[in-house]
Amino acid sequence: MAAKSPVKEPPGTSAVNPTTPLAPPPVKPELPSSSEPDVVNVPSYSRWFSFDSISECEVKFLPEFFDSRSPSKNPRVYRYYRDSIVKHYRENPSRKITFTDVRRTLVGDVGSIRRVFDFLETWGLINYFASVKTLKWEDKETKSSAASAESSSALKETSKRLCNGCKTLCTIACFACDKYDLTLCARCYVRGNHRVGVSSSDFRRVEISEEARSDWTEKETLQLLEAIMHFGDDWRKVAQHVSGKSEKDCITHFIKLPFGQEFICKESDSEDVDNKFFSINNPSDAVSESENVGATSPSKRMRLTPLADASNPIMAQAAFLSALAGVEIAEVAARAAVTTLSDVDDRASKGSLMRNTRQQGMNSNPS
Amino acid sequence: MKLPATSSSKAPVKFRMPTADNLVPIRLDIETEGQRYKDAFTWNPSDPDSEVVVFAKRTVRDLKLPPQFITQIAQSIQTQLTEFRSYEGQDMYTAEKIVPIKLDLRVNHTLIKDHFLWDLNNYESDPEEFARTFCNDMGIEDPEVGPAVAFAIREQLYEIAIQSVASAREIKISKKGRRGAEHAISSKGGGNALDLMKLFRYNSSVVRKRKEWYVYEPIVDILSNEEVDALEAREDRNTR
């Protein structure tokens, strides 16, 4: 690779000039057969990198090559390792190179090579993919995600969901608001990290399962029902009719659909969520009360907004966890916790002189 | 140029690789659960032992091997390192030894045969440098050949160094009062070593005889896929 590729950065990073001012102006690199120009992304904190010199940063982090303690480790050898590794990577920047690939082609001891490799990787000079962090099972697709970095931010893709509040990838569960087309991760939802004017009740919980099966919107459910009416048991045709769902998804969802009256009551879903949330409030309060022996009266007939108040970190955490786990699970868990706590209290006070504890336990127990 | 007999013996030196860098050649050949992993590389014995596990984990991750390999690789490396270190305290006699080094290796599609002389007393010698120059001169394109050549040289030097430790020990045992010890050294240090005195006698020439040229000429062959497959099959059969 004799030609020096021009180096470009993704937005937010600064320009890197691979040649020093004294070097002759670079020859215009011949473009390879593909029409795309050769570009390599380098993070801004690595702008010191240059093929023609060694920077202080390198001396600091890899002192073994610069302290003349070993005759085989000197700056020349360091540059040989460094330049070979970087050039090897830049031959195909969309592919992640491994240490083993590289050390087989370099003459020298593997310990030093590994340290140079790790250094270059940490500083993003190799294996740097300026894209959104993808989920583990999508590692093979880093190439395609690098290409679609710009487009994935606000799109509701079936496999990736980004939070509009903190711009991280949502895992396990997220909260979607169809009205304003927003997606929030559990943490942002609990903190109320959304625009003014949007209330928490506008959101519904969406589970993100391992196979990234997306939620079913009303439209899709309607399509599904239509298709079943038309095609009956022919799931292949049903799946074709419903956009974006596989046969298996269709069957699974259909089985899970509620019947009859429950189905009619679906509009009040969002209110249900609210009610369940605030009934959680009470058990959660009970939990924190028995812990803190505080006297917060169960007059929390308030809406969801108190969850946004993170001043009580325990409450915030409990809220976050219950939002993440979902309504039913959180409810059951809270009830189980309360029951156990009262059991423990009973047992502790039986046959002991601590009548006060029982008194307190009984008082704070909302049952 | 006549060399006095006494200069052919030297005070014993502490064992080390007779090269500029004291690097150990490590060879791995591990088979577990039907998968075979073969590798060869150079290790710096002054690296901390923690590096062994780090390297093993890294290699297993990069090559996507099953995790049982990690402990096996680490153990194998550790054993070879310990063996190397066990020689370190001991003496070796190197005398004035010029030893022949033979290269006969295959790396992917490149076959290399070569035969040259190496000065064991030159502690500044550098097999890696030799390998780099060799690849440049012979126009070898496969980047994996260089390290393999360096490794082959290093391995042979290591063998010879170990032998000279063993022979030093023997000599010590038999040395009591024997004056012929010096001659014993020069003859014991490997039957392959060239006797410089004989070589540089006044009536002989340092220029190699023409009929011997072919022995010392490097041969680099590029093999076709079928030949590679055939060779690999034969190697596997031989090692099992």
Regarding quaternary structure, what we see is heterodimer
Number of helices of chain B: 7
Provide the low-confidence segments of chain B as ranges.
Answer: 1-9, 183-191
Task: Return the string of H and E elements of chain A.
Answer: HHHHHEEHEHHHHHHHH
Q: Look at the helices and sheets of chain A and give the structural class.
A: mainly alpha
**Overall pLDDT metric of chain B:** 79
Number of distinct beta strands of chain A: 3
Strand order of the largest sheet of chain B: 5-6-7
Helix content of chain B: 40-55%
Low-confidence blocks of residues of chain A: 1-36, 132-158, 261-306
Coarse shape of chain A? extended
The rounded Rg of chain A comes to: 29 Å
Euclidean distance between termini CA atoms of chain B = 51 Å
Write down the overall mean pLDDT of chain A.
68
Instruction: Look at the helices and sheets of chain B and give the structural class.
Output: alpha+beta
Beta-strand fraction estimate of chain B: 15-25%
Organism (chain A): Citrus sinensis (Sweet orange)
Protein name (chain A): SWI/SNF complex subunit SWI3B
Subcellular location (chain B): Nucleus
InterPro entries (chain B): SNF5 (IPR006939)
Describe this entry's structure for a reader.
The complex is a heterodimer of chains A (367) and B (240). With 367 residues, chain A is mainly alpha-helical. Helices cover 43% and strands 4% of the residues of chain A. Chain A is built from 14 helices and three strands. Chain A has helices at 56-61, 75-90, 99-103, 110-122, 142-147, 186-191, 218-231, 235-241, 247-256, 260-264, 269-292, 313-325, 327-349, 355-364, and strands at residues 173-177, 182-185, 204-207. A three-stranded antiparallel β-sheet of chain A has the order 2-1-3. Chain A is extended and about 75 Å long. The model of chain A is unreliable at 1-36, 132-158 and 261-306 (pLDDT under 50). In chain B, the strands form three sheets. In chain B, strands 5-6-7 form a three-stranded antiparallel β-sheet, with helices on one face. With 240 residues, chain B is α+β, with helices and mostly antiparallel strands. In chain B, helix 1 (50-63) runs antiparallel to helix 2, helix 3 runs antiparallel to helix 4 (145-174) and helix 4 (145-174) runs antiparallel to helix 5. Chain B starts with 12 loop residues before the first strand and ends with a helix. Chain B is built from seven helices and seven strands. Chain B has one domain (13-170, 192-239). The longest helix of chain B is centred in the middle third of the chain and has 30 residues, at 145-174. In chain B, a hairpin with a 2-residue loop joins strand 5 (98-107) and strand 6 (110-119).
